[in-house]
Amino acid sequence: MTTPFMEVRGVSKHFGGVRAVDHVDCDVNGGEVVGLLGHNGAGKTVLVKLICGVYQPDEGEVFVHGKKVSFTKPRDAQEAGIETIHQTLALADNIDAPSNLFLGRELMTRWGTLDSQRMDHEARQIIARLNPNFTQITRPVRAMSGGQRQTVAIARALYFNARILIMDEPCAALGPSETRMVMDTVRRLKDHGIGIFLISHDMHDVFEVCDRVTVLKNGRVVGTQKVAEVTQDDVLGMIILGKNPAPKVAA
Questions:
Q1: Is 81 part of a structural domain of the chain?
Q2: Model's pTM, two decimal places?
Q3: CA–CA dist 109, 89 (Å, integer)
């Protein structure tokens, strides 16, 4: 048995009398995509914030590469190799891709000035790995397509050695061609051994790239299933009814 890149055991978080996350277990391995599914209010967002250090759990434990961790802020999670790509992307629209990639973590020359040439070179290198067709990286982000903006956000995470990615609705509001671009990028990340938690409401996307799905309802885990062993209707039943599918009977 290999050690998961990240493992969450019995994690809970309550706000007053509301248990937003209630004894949740989930994990992700290297080179694996795990879908985190559930209706709005199921607990996905709070779980993600617990994983990436925005919130601290009231109960439970989190392990990264088999080592117990305790994050008090998002920077702690980043230093452990965990990056979150939020639905809003958190990009600055008025500057280009290299400037966004290194925003707050700029590369400097030995004279203490911005090393713009190196940042441009490094940005081109990593963006080419994700999307070889995306070459016009010096335009302001506001002039880029949704798929290109996602690429910039993902490149920013990977450049700083992320081994675990949390992707929150990466294809929301994207057209079919841009969605395809993002799904192709997810596959490349998977091939490079990155562990990915994918939050999505699009069942087609989930079944296209996920290896397993973990379904949440009312803060609790309904179950975790291998995508190859269930149907979309099975997963919808888990989301809506809160029940695992009946075991398949061999013919």
A1: yes
A2: 0.88
A3: 28
